[in-house]
Amino acid sequence: MNDLFSGGRRLPLVEDFYTIQGEGRHAGKAAYFIRLGGCDVGCSWCDARFTWNPHAFPPVDVDEIVARAAAHPARAIVITGGEPLLYPLAYLTDRLHEHGLEIFLETSGAHRPSGRFDWVCLSPKPAQPPVDKAVALADELKIIIENGEDFAWAEQNATRVREDCLLFLQPEWSRRARLIPAIVEYVKNNPRWRVSLQTHKYMNIP
Questions:
Q1: 127 neighbors 113 (Cβ within 8 angstroms)
Q2: Residues 139, 25: contact at Cβ < 8 Å?
Q3: Distance, C-alpha 177 to centroid of its chain
Q4: 171: closest CA among 138, 204, 202, 192?
Q5: Alpha-carbon dihedral sign for residues 49, 5, 137, 30
Q6: Dihedrals φ, ψ of 196, to 5°?
Q7: Per-residue model confidence as pLDDT tens digits over 122-170
Q8: H-helix segments, the chain
Q9: Strand partners, 169
Q10: Whole-prediction pTM
């Protein structure tokens, strides 16, 4: 894999685009998104399953991606997927930092991290729990609530992150009408948690 991606100088890019971050701690911020292809976690409710097959996305020169990102006025970059930690990310993050950009990572934490990030959103999944090194980097823990059992998964992961890590519960989009009341009550009873909503979907933006 390292040869295919030239040590991280090329990566399987699904898309890159300028928009508003819709979720979690940085919701509402203008940000440039870099979405990488490939995921081996395979959530049944995933809204980005078109990214799962890495072979569908030929490697793209990272310097080209960085040049497009640096051309936009926002200083925030979101690296997402798929699962971006499948790939060596040090070259990408170093080049972005050279432009003074702030880098946010969104990951399941299922793989050992590489690269330097200013903010890490860890969204772990039971099918493939996060590795310790990824958990240690988490600035934000975001648990997707699909059913009542996911609250226990949320608490399990909350015991693993740093004390200063922010805790978010986010309803699975297709079941949000049913789940939001339960999440609201849970947060009221457990106020160290916060509610995260996919506000970009309400705004009909990418």
A1: no
A2: yes
A3: 23
A4: 202
A5: negative
A6: -115, 135
A7: 999 999 999 999 999 999 999 999 999 999 999 999 999 999 999 999 9
A8: 62-70, 90-98, 132-137, 150-158, 176-189, 199-202
A9: 143, 195
A10: 0.95
42: left (phi over 0), alpha (psi -120 to 50) or beta: left
Dmax (CA) of the chain: 51
> How far apart, in Å, do the first and last CA atoms of the chain sit?
30
The CB-based long-range contact list for 44-51 (8 Å cut-off, 24+ gap) reads 45/144, 45/146, 45/172, 45/173, 45/174, 47/173, 48/81, 48/82, 50/14, 51/14, 51/81, 51/82
Task: Answer whether the bond into residue 22 is a cis peptide, omega within 30°.
Answer: no
- pLDDT band (50, 70, 90) for residue 1: low
Contacts of the segment 40-49: beta carbons below 8 A, 24+ positions apart: 40/83, 40/86, 40/110, 40/128, 41/83, 41/108, 41/110, 41/125, 41/127, 41/128, 42/127, 43/125, 43/127, 43/144, 45/144, 45/146, 45/172, 45/173, 45/174, 47/173, 48/81, 48/82
CA 109 from centre of chain: 9
Which tokens belong to 124? 């772990």
